[in-house]
Amino acid sequence: MKPLIVFFCVAVISTTVVAQGLKPEIKTGNSGTTYTFFKKQGYKLEFTDKRPDIADASVMLCIPAAFTNVGNNRVDGIYAVSGTIAHPVVINKTLGGICYIEKGNCRIFQSAQGRLFGDSLYHAVKMAKASFFQQIQCIEHGKAAGFKDKKLFQRRGIAILKDHSIAVIESQEPITLKVFAEDLVELGVIDLIYTDMGAWDEGWYRPTEKASPKTLGTDLSQTARQSNWIIYRK
After folding, report:
1. The whole model's pTM is what?
2. How far is CA 75 from the centre of its chain?
3. How many helices (H) and strands (E) does the chain have?
4. Exposure pattern of 29-38 as b/e (b: 16+ CB <10 Å)?
5. Tally of domains in the chain
6. For residue 81, with 0-12 CB atoms within 10 Å meaning exposed, 13-18 middle and 19 or more buried, which class applies?
7. Residues 6+ apart with CB under 8 A from 151
8. Is residue 178 classed as helix, strand or coil in its secondary structure?
9. What is the CA angle 218-68-164, rounded to 5?
10. Residues 146, 95, 204, CA angle at the centre, nearest 5°?
11. Most exposed among 38, 61, 165, 193, judged by the fewest C-beta atoms under 10 Å?
12. Alpha helices in the chain (DSSP H)
């Protein structure tokens, strides 16, 4: 596992841009689908299993992240928050992607069918006080995953763009994962990890730092059962 130790010592790219609120950018994919980009700008990316307070003015964006296990309402898969691995440790080997968050930024990579999880990773997470969660990786190194799905849902994910900036991106229309991934490759995404949608899709953002939050999502019916969240914090 020695190579993993070297890997996790690589610095996460940071930004010094001063943010003044989230200004959504609208882009259209090759399929004709419209996408909203919420760029992280100078805010910090965080992962939490404690529901953020919508009245907390330091939270600029909040969305569900990992899937929630409908049987026990727990986060689906292994995860960590601020250096602490959640117990019991339950690895979901069908979710190949990892969103690794450190110092307000993130990296997205594959878990090698769960083989990456082990003492080297856990030690690195603890030392860096990092967070991570499992999810579907839709784009890896600028290549869309080979989805063959036919189900239509609004889609959302966390993306790393060609300029190394980070954005939450969501479709405005219901589409397949295949269309979602292929469109976003053409729109400049090099890595993208999915976030929970469907009935669990409710989130919110602030267009300015003093503005009231605006709701994200269309279904919203399972909001009360959400178990974990990604946020942008100022």
Report:
1. 0.91
2. 14
3. 3, 17
4. bebebebbbb
5. 1
6. buried
7. 176
8. helix
9. 75
10. 95
11. 165
12. 2-7, 119-128, 177-186
Distance of CA 166 to the CA centre of its chain: 10
- Token duo for residue 15: 């930004």
Q: 224: helix, coil or strand?
A: helix
Give Cα separations from 54 to 58, 213, 223, 231 (angstroms): 10, 7, 13, 11
pLDDT tens, residue by residue, 12-67: 444 444 568 999 999 999 999 999 999 999 999 999 999 999 999 999 999 999 99
For residue 217, pLDDT over 50 is answered with yes
Beta-bridge partner residues of 205: 61, 214
Domain housing 213: 27-233
User: What is the model's pLDDT at position 197?
Assistant: 97
5 lies in a domain? no
Rounded distance, CA 230 to CA 198, Å? 17
C-alpha angle 134/136/138, rounded to 5°? 140
Q: Is residue 8 part of a domain?
A: no
What's the pLDDT at 18? 55
| Any domain includes 21 | no
Tokens of 30: 């090759």
CA atoms within 13 A on the CB side of 67: 19
Is residue 85 situated within a structural domain?
yes
> Taking a C-beta distance cutoff of 8 angstroms, is the pair 108, 98 a contact?
yes
Cα–Cα distance, 123 to 132 (Å, whole number): 13
Site of tokens 């999880």: 117
